[in-house]
């Protein structure tokens, strides 16, 4: 469950008044959720300060780590420096703060080094990890932090190119019709093509980044590093693909949910800009059919988190949801 900023801050304030603020939080959400802005409000709330941004906090001596190397990764040395600063100094009221922006950019070695800080933090320490891709972090890190998933503020969401392509695909359903096996298979092929484009883009981005790192480190590392980095790259591709596929599935469910909302006379919609298309389907489909289609798409979302063949899962779901 994701929270709006105000609701999340209310929960943190409640924990603060009860003396139950944790020592490490992972703030997640889309870029429109403004993770850095939330982190500033979090620190202000806990400390009683009133700084405008993270740079103002940095001027107070609070360590803030960002991807800064040529490869745009967070290296082990940066994490160790964060740990050193936390132990050596304190912020307002004796609190010790540490922030890692784009925490998913930490190399595996850096993540392992950070685990020591998570497991044995100094007293009155508060660590904030900001990331739009929490799946990129080790399970051992995710299990040791309190996750605060944020949603984009109303009216702030900006769709990616892949999301816009999916929305266009869904809009066309209301124009060209559905209800036959041939139509369902056409929609399924278009969705799979979109997934292939997403995977190809992610793979290219990761391979380009890997090539830049090889050039940067070619005279300072051995073959073992190269092999481990290749394994890490493959894992990153799989994790990021799963994340973007899940985002598209959430959009698909939001679309079908809006169709149902039209049928029950709801006033709020997840995709108001596409209301004409979802309203057209709400008029064409029976409520029982919409309920069945939504159920099948939710089942697909669940199946994609298992070891089931992606292609087979898509076949079954789209035949059931759109035929």
Q: Please, could you describe this protein's structure?
A:
There is one protein chain. The protein is of the alpha/beta class and 323 residues long. The chain folds into two domains: 5-149, 3-Layer(aba) Sandwich (Rossmann fold); 161-322, no CATH class. The protein is 61% helix and 7% strand. The protein has twelve helices and five strands. The chain has helices at residues 5-17, 35-47, 54-59, 76-88, 108-119, 139-142, 161-176, 181-217, 223-264, 275-284, 287-303, 310-322; strands at 24-28, 64-65, 96-101, 125-131, 146-149. Strands 2-3-4-1-5 form a five-stranded parallel sheet, sandwiched between helices.
Give the secondary structure arrangement, pairings included.
Blueprint: H1 5-17, E1 24-28, H2 35-47, H3 54-59, E2 64-65, H4 76-88, E3 96-101, H5 108-119, E4 125-131, H6 139-142, E5 146-149, H7 161-176, H8 181-217, H9 223-264, H10 275-284, H11 287-303, H12 310-322
Parallel strand pairs: 1-4, 1-5, 2-3, 3-4
Which features does this protein show?
single chain; alpha/beta; 5 strands; 323 residues; 12 helices; Rossmann fold
């Amino acid at each position: 469950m994701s929270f709006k900023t105000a609701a999340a801050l209310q929960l943190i304030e409640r924990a603060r008044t009860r003396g139950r603020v944790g020592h490490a939080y992972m703030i997640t959400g889309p870029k429109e959720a403004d993770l850095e802005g939330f982190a500033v409000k979090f620190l202000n709330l806990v400390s009683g300060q009133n700084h405008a941004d993270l740079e103002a906090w940095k001027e107070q001596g609070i360590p803030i780590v960002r991807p800064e190397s040529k490869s745009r990764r967070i290296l082990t040395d940066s994490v160790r420096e964060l740990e050193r600063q936390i132990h050596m100094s304190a912020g307002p009221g004796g609190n010790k703060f540490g922030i890692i922006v784009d925490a998913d950019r930490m190399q595996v070695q850096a993540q392992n080094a950070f685990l020591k800080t998570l497991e044995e933090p100094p007293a009155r320490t508060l660590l904030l990890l900001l990331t739009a891709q929490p799946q990129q972090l080790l399970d051992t890190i995710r299990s040791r932090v309190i996750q605060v998933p944020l949603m984009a503020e109303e009216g702030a969401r900006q769709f990616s190119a892949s999301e816009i392509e999916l929305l266009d695909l869904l809009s066309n359903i209301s124009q060209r019709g559905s209800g036959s096996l041939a139509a369902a298979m056409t929609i399924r092929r278009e969705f799979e093509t979109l997934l292939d484009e997403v995977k190809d883009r992610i793979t290219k981005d990761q391979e380009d980044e890997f090539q830049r790192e090889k050039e940067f480190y070619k005279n300072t590392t051995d073959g073992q590093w190269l092999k481990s980095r290749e394994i890490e790259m493959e894992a990153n591709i799989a994790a990021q693909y799963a994340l973007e596929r899940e985002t598209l599935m959430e959009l698909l469910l939001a679309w079908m949910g809006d169709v149902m909302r039209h049928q029950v006379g709801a006033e709020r919609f997840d995709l108001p800009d596409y209301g004409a298309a979802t309203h057209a389907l709400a008029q064409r489909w029976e409520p029982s059919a919409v309920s069945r289609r939504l159920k099948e798409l939710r089942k697909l979302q669940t199946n994609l988190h298992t070891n089931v063949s992606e292609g087979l899962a898509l076949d079954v779901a789209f035949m059931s949801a759109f035929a």
